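**User:**
If convenient, please work through this fold.
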Amino acid sequence: MDYQMKKMDNSMAQDNGIPLVFSNNPMRRVGNMDNIRRAEGFPGQIMHVIPRPTLQRMGRHFLLRALCVTDIGWYPRASHHFRERPDGADQHILIFCVRGTGWFEIGGRQAVVTPHHALLIPRGVPHAYGASPTDPWSIHWVHFIGDEADYYARLLPDGVFQLPVSTTCVHAMERTFRDSYASLAGGYLVRNLVYLAHALRHLLGLLFYGNRAYSPELRAPPTRDLQGTIDFMVEHLAEPLRLADLGRHAGLSAVHFASLFRRQTGMAPIEYFIHLRIRHACRLLDTTGLTIREIGYRVGYEDPYYFSRMFRKLMGLSPRQYRALRKG
């Protein structure tokens, strides 16, 4: 991490002072206004560049070694925004587009960035990006380093840098960014930087593991959202659902549904259904005075002995032992 800190000083000088080379790529052109491209300075913007000596001093903190924010900000309607780093950045860069349109070029690949999409650029990867000339983007952005940072970059499929973000995840990510800006109002104290590190971990967790529009297990945006079928399972825990029933509900063949479900969840559909049943049984054991037989019946097991066997297999103890545990 100390090595990364030393390199960052050079990269900041490059970004802020040295003219950058622009290609003839038409996606980069802003009409005839190339000469007013801007890296920052947008009305209403928020920008925090953590002082590099502060990062050097606090970089030995074990929580900041794992994941550390170096720069973070908000650019609303960032007209003429443009960045190009021919040698890449010394930090990973996350850009979250909430309104308007932008573009990026990485490894010769050019693409448009639209609302509710996130762009993750791994450190050391040459890149350029900017705002649309007609509908400039509004973006939250963060640069980060640390021992965990490379792991998240490796979750991207090869050659993919842009991820869709589900509506629910959009709202949660925006709240987390706003909380991050507020946390720095008191200055760059160690407690604020540690809070920022946890906020970043939450952002990355939302993007990769709380985002219905993307699955790191599938390593690509899913072709079909199966949440409706999972909701169907939850609503019919007491019924003897079969794989064919679930596939029919999803509008797929049983084989296709089972394959897609396993890729998105890491579990077979019926195995997942059993987990849902036992989870609900735990809730009933914790919150009601129902007998073991009655609870088993409510989650689809008419034979209390079979219910107890399935419960023990999943939870490692019998329903009666589970109920006797002191929890909370």
